[in-house]
Amino acid sequence: MHHALRQFSKSPGFSLLAVLTLALGIGATTTIFSVVNGVLLNPLPFPRSDRLYSVWETNPSLGIEQFSASVPNFTDWRERSQSWSGLAATTARSANLTGAGEPAHLLVQYCSADFWEITGYQPLLGRTFRPDEDQPGRNGALILTQRAWERHFGASPNILGRSVRLNDQVCEIVGVAPAGFTMDPAVDAFAPLGADLAREGRDNHEIAVIGRLREGVTPGQAEAELHIIAGQLAREYPESNTGWSTRLDPFANWLVNPSVRLALWVLLGGVGLVLFIACANVSNLLLVRATARTRELAIRTALGGGRGRLVRLLLAESLALAIPGAVLGLLVASWAVDALQLIDPAHLPRAEQIAIDGRVAAFAALLALVSGGLAGLAPLAGAVRLDVQEALKARSQALTSARSPLRDALVVVQIALSLVLLIGGALLARSFERLTQQDLGFDAANVLTFRLSPTESDPALYDRLLPRLAALPGVEHVAVTSTPPFSFNNTSLDLTPIGPSRLGPDEKLQADWRMVSGDYFQTLRVPLLAGRTFTPADNPQAPRVILVNQTLARQLWGEEDPVGKRVRVGSGTQETTVVGVVADFRHRTPDQAVSPAFFLSAHRVVWGSMTVVVRTQLPSEQLVPSLRGVIRELEPTLPLHGVRMLSDLARDSVARQRLQTTLFAALAAIAGALSLVGLYSVIAFSVAQRTREIGVRVALGAHPRHIVKLIGRHGARLIACGLALGLLAAFAAARLMESLLFEISATDPWAFCSVPVALSAVALAASLLPTRRALRVSPTEALRAE
After folding, report:
1. 91 near 247, Cβ under 8 Å?
2. Are 392 and 295 in contact (CB under 8 A)?
3. Cα(582)–Cα(617) distance, rounded to whole angstroms?
4. Whether the Cβ atoms of residue 432 and residue 654 lie closer than 8 Å to each other
5. Cα–Cα distance between 547 and 535 in angstroms, integer?
6. What are residue 613's DSSP bridge partners?
């Protein structure tokens, strides 16, 4: 190793280039591995998390693969199933906290008492819920998250037993949950779900269910049992449960979506290719260096150095480059992880777990050994095959060959791998472009949103508030809704048409629903296609009315005018009249198709937590103080929270796709640059070794274009072979990415045609750059040297 360091100190430029190349590959690989380690490999904060499963409802006939459960169905699962040591229900809602200084908004996760036993987690302070606290009518218990404890109570150790008011209910703080224990990082507190568990309505799907399997029970057995129970419920309650079944999903998929898992593994595979390209580049540099040292190695062998000694020497030299490359790469990874946390921490699940820990450091050390071995592989192969007698008899000028099949093969592999990454990046970029160009069906520009969570669900509050907000300077329209676009809320109910429809007798349609006030569609600039929208007259004393979107109207009544048609909503028996039809618009994410949806009058019924949408020409920082002032005058204890521009929410809805596209594009760019450098270095070395030959050719009358053609032919062969091999590999790799693409084929002709053409053009230019040196060769100097 000492000898290797001394050798490299004589050529610092070569050493620095090799170390930086390896540092780039190792740093990129370590960065992505740290993300995979934190998000996928680190254990969940629950004991025996492999026994935890989410239970979802499904309805294949309605195209519903995963849906929240209804409370009565959950109760029956818990009573009839024998496969679970426990089943718990949970749902999250906004609530106002008073009695702790200034009124504050909390996101509260309501959960059944056995939630804590099922997850197996213990609070940082205090206790969990008792079964008697999980009952309707009881004063609530409250468990704070560590973040909320520190933010609202200054991490006071005397917090246990303190009474606060959560909305209109007095609650006693009984515990503090440790950091990291949450299924949603935005959750501030936990409260019992007892009041909800007394509710009826099997067609009202609003809770999530988590269960722990009994020892010895397999997921397949538990799922089969739940299918049997679902069949029993369908026979017992045909009105609400026909067509509904269940499915299990590992609880880890709740915290980390399977599409995110796939994207991370694809990124790790891509960055592995970048590391391989970096190693190939360094290997080529070492191979050139070893080729120039052929006579030296032959003399060492002749003086008694065995082949094992030569192998150790060359391996030490490659490790002498890889070890500082790994150290520098680890520093690069540390910086990149910090930058990644700043760029988009909210849309990367378990982002708080991403760090350079012992496992990541060990991975970087392993990369140093692997990359050192890979980089030194080609020189080692040459040393093993060294013919000592031929090397000693040959003249020193003839020891280095302008052509080396191994060097050429390494360049071909680099070009092929970089083409795979560039095509993958092009596919993701095309997919993201299609995603961002989707017609949302509404205008998100200049729309401010914020949430209010009154202690009582009183529609009259909003009827008083909205006109006052609309009168503020700079406000064009204002409305209220239960679930604004991009909120990802999953609310649906059955609709049963009364009278002729496209459905069969006794058939229902499952549809999304939202509560909105009259100006909601005008605020979002969603066209009203037929009928009317809501007015304050659509209050609790008026007949029940709804609006429907185009998709729902067509599925129920085809091309008939839906205005005036009557339906039954949910399991109720009262008739509801359709008074208007609005254009379709995307509600959840741009990549999700428009679902059938209907809208209820917020002048008649509201939730405790509603979102106010305001169309304005003023910047949010100018408008928000005025909004707060109006709300404070009307309801002094009501906090305004969740202030966001709707355009920001639209951008956030594709944040995951933007992040994975950016990362993959960066990896592809690095890979392409490294492969071009490798191609240039090989052609440049070839030109340098053929200097005398080129000089003789020029002296004999060769035209410059013949010299260019001579050199370009070598580069063109390498590029053609690399492109052919890369296209075959890219076709196979694109299939793995298919689920990450939106409205783009995995064999998209644009990506598979334009990228190879662009890469070949740039690569050919890189291979022809050394011709300038060749054309400057003096025939006189070349002949004198001969």
Report:
1. no
2. yes
3. 25
4. yes
5. 12
6. 449, 479
| Closest of 662, 665, 720, 753 to residue 415, by C-alpha | 720
HSE, CB side, 13 Å, CA atoms: give it for residue 180: 14
pLDDT at 401: 47
Q: Which helix (H) or strand (E) holds 95?
A: strand 84-98
Which residue is it, tokens 């070794």?
689
Yes or no: say if 630 and 470 are a contact pair by the CB < 8 Å rule. Answer: no
| Cβ-based neighbours of 64, under 8 Å, separated by 6 or more | 57, 58, 510
Query: How sure is the predictor about 786, in pLDDT bands with cuts at 50, 70 and 90?
Result: low
Hey, what amino acid is at 588? R
**Mean pLDDT, the chain, as a whole number?**
83
Judging by DSSP bridges, how do beta strands 545-549 and 575-582 pair with one another? Answer: parallel
Q: Find all residues with CB under 8 Å of 119, minimum gap 6, and list them.
A: 46, 52, 88, 210, 212
Q: For residue 402, what pLDDT is reported? A: 47
- What phi-psi label fits residue 512: left (phi over 0), alpha (psi between -120 and 50 degrees) or beta? beta
Residues 6+ apart with CB under 8 A from 6: none
Produce one character per residue of 558-574: b if its CB has 16 or more CB atoms within 10 Å, e if not: eeeebbebebbbbbeee
Quick check: helix, strand or coil at residue 270?
helix
Closest CA to 438 of 480, 486, 398, 406: 486
Contact yes or no for 415/720 (Cβ under 8 A): no
| Beta carbons of 683 and 483 less than 8 angstroms apart | no
Cβ atoms 373, 318 nearer than 8 A: yes
* Confidence band, pLDDT 50/70/90 cuts, at residue 781: low
Contact 524, 443 (CB under 8 A): yes
Angle at 346 between CA 342 and CA 347, to 5 degrees: 110
Task: Please name the residue ranges forming H helices in 385-404.
Answer: 388-393
Could you give the C-alpha distances from 23 to 11, 207, 355, 371, 382, in angstroms and in order? 18, 49, 19, 10, 25
Surface-to-core class of residue 640, CB atoms within 10 Å of its CB (0-12 exposed, 13-18 middle, 19+ buried): middle
Over residues 384-409, the mean pLDDT reads 58
Name beta bridge partners: 495. 509, 569
The pair of structure tokens assigned to 212 is: 């722990």
CA distance 114 to 65: 27
Exposure of 435 by Cβ count < 10 A (0-12 exposed, 13-18 middle, 19+ buried)?
Answer: buried
Residue 306 backbone class (left: φ over 0; alpha: ψ -120 to 50; beta: rest) = beta
- Please compute, for residue 16, the number of CA atoms within 13 A of its CA located in the half-sphere on the CB side: 4
CA distance 110 to 136: 13
End-to-end CA distance of the chain: give it in Å, rounded.
39
| pTM beyond 0.85 | no
Cα 396 to Cα 224: distance, rounded to the nearest angstrom? 77
pLDDT at 403: 53
Helices (H), 142-210: 146-153, 194-197
Residue with tokens 């596209």: 661
Degrees, nearest 5: CA angle 629-633-639? 65
Number of residues written out for the chain: 786
Other residues' Cβ atoms within 10 Å of the Cβ of residue 186? 13
Phi first, then psi: what are they for 190, rounded to 5°? -120, 140
CB of 225 closer than 8 Å to CB of 83: yes
- Give the pLDDT of residue 600: 93
- Distance from C-alpha of 390 to C-alpha of 392, rounded to nearest angstrom: 5
Which two three-digit tokens encode residue 648? 């920001």
pLDDT tens by residue, 66-105: 888 888 899 899 899 999 998 999 888 878 887 766 777 8
Of 487, 486, 251, 257, residue with least CA distance to 349 = 257
Asked if 37 contacts 355 with a C-beta cutoff of 8 angstroms, the reply is no
User: How far from the centroid of its chain's Cα atoms is residue 773's Cα?
Assistant: 48
Torsion of CA 456, 460, 466, 471, to 10 degrees: -130
